[in-house]
Design a protein that fits this description.
The chain is α/β, with parallel strands linked by helices and 160 residues long. 52% of the residues lie in helices and 19% in strands.
Length: 160
């Protein structure tokens, strides 16, 4: 099996080096570049066409949302996994709607990142367990709120 090529994009050097080290120890992956600048990431994606781009959201001057748009245009075959410190589902939803194929948080364990890369590489969408748990809690709480609406009379609902 050919190695899965990975581009790491994060503005924190220690994060990039750690991810690169972890992926480099796995025979399935080849880190082709690690960069802290969004524009360089776009250029590398265009030139090297990585299978996977691990993309931080909070960067400057180009943030992950901007970089995602350009990577999708410049290297449409590259699949982007957003990696963020944010566990709010709104971030995951926005990245996925914009074309990312996965979302993991920086709280995710190493194995979850490896699983995300493999799943996304194989054509699936991946959302980390932390965000899934928050979404589940939100859905359960929404059901409780909806149940309250069912107890209202037609006139009360009409007024609302």
């Amino acid at each position: 099996m050919a190695k899965i090529t990975v581009l790491i994009v994060d503005d924190h050097t220690l994060i990039r080096e750690t991810w690169s080290f972890l992926l480099g120890r796995n025979e399935n992956f080849e880190v082709i570049a690690e960069v802290g600048d969004g524009q360089r990431a776009i250029d590398i994606a265009r030139d090297k066409r990585p299978n996977i781009v691990l993309l931080d959201i909070n960067m400057t001057p180009l943030n992950g949302f901007d970089v995602l748009k350009m990577v999708r245009k410049q290297s449409p075959g590259s699949k982007v996994i957003a990696v963020s410190m944010h566990s709010q589902p709104a971030y995951a939803k926005k990245m996925l709607r914009m074309g990312a194929k996965g979302y993991i948080t920086k709280n995710s364990p190493r194995q979850e990142m490896l699983d995300a890369i493999m799943d996304v590489y194989n054509g699936n969408t991946y959302i980390c367990q932390e965000v899934k748990n928050i979404l589940s809690d939100q859905m359960l709480n929404e059901e409780d709120t909806a149940a309250g609406l069912n107890q209202l009379s037609e006139r009360e609902i009409e007024v609302i």
